[in-house]
Amino acid sequence: MNKPTRWVTENTADHSHWYIERFRRLAREGADLAGEARLVDAMLPRSARVLDAGCGQGRVGAELAARGHLVTGVDADAELIAAARAEHPRPRWVVADLAELDLSGSGGPTEFDTAVMAGNVILFVAEGTEEQVLRRVAAHLRPDGFAVIGFGANRGYDLTDFDRHATAAGLAVEQRFATWDLRPWRSDSPFSVTVLRR
Question: Which residues are bridge partners to 53 per DSSP?
């Protein structure tokens, strides 16, 4: 078993509950919570197989499922997965550490057209496991499949390391943007959205 994720070590015990309630409130207030899903959906054929890696309470995966895709969401936080199952029963939700991800015995798809990691997921994996996480995600992509990964800058994991880890995991950087609505990326952009191809 890998060491605890930063989601666990950097947050209080009730953080997962707070996180779930925060997004419920945003949804009630009419916030646009589907931007990541719109981008990924535009890149996919209909009925594609999607791995929502670090899915949280299912916000992105549920939206992609509503658009007709076959979604498997994975998160190490059992409380978030429980909320996803309760609120979005259509996709498949799995409790698993991304650094150890192996869906071969899970009874569902094991090879995906795409993987999406939204919401700074890569920043919350256990420190030092970023390359292993990318390897495990890449191992679940079909040949020529792609991953879309977004995270904020200046939070302890820079793009130079990310690109190096992605290359080691067998993923090639294909595109990079500053936002999920495809604004151009610059070296001083506070956020990055990277498309990686297997």
Answer: 74
Please say whether the beta carbons of 95 and 75 come within 8 A.
yes
Name residues of the chain where pLDDT drops below 50: 1
CA–CA gap between residue 20 and residue 31 (Å, rounded): 15
The predicted pLDDT at position 151 comes to 97
Using CB atoms within 10 A of its CB, is residue 144 exposed (0-12), middle (13-18) or buried (19+)? exposed
Q: Which two tokens stand for residue 117?
A: 């990691």
Alpha-carbon distance of 117 to 148, in angstroms, equals 6
Measured CA to CA, the distance from residue 90 to residue 72 in angstroms comes to 10
Q: Which residues pair with 74 in a beta bridge?
A: 53, 94
The per-residue pLDDT for 58 is 95
- Give me the CATH number covering residue 159: 3.40.50.150
Q: Are 133 and 162 in contact (CB under 8 A)?
A: no
The structural domain count of the chain equals: 1
Predicted confidence (pLDDT) per residue in 162-179, tens digit: 999 999 999 999 999 999
For the chain, give the mean pLDDT.
91
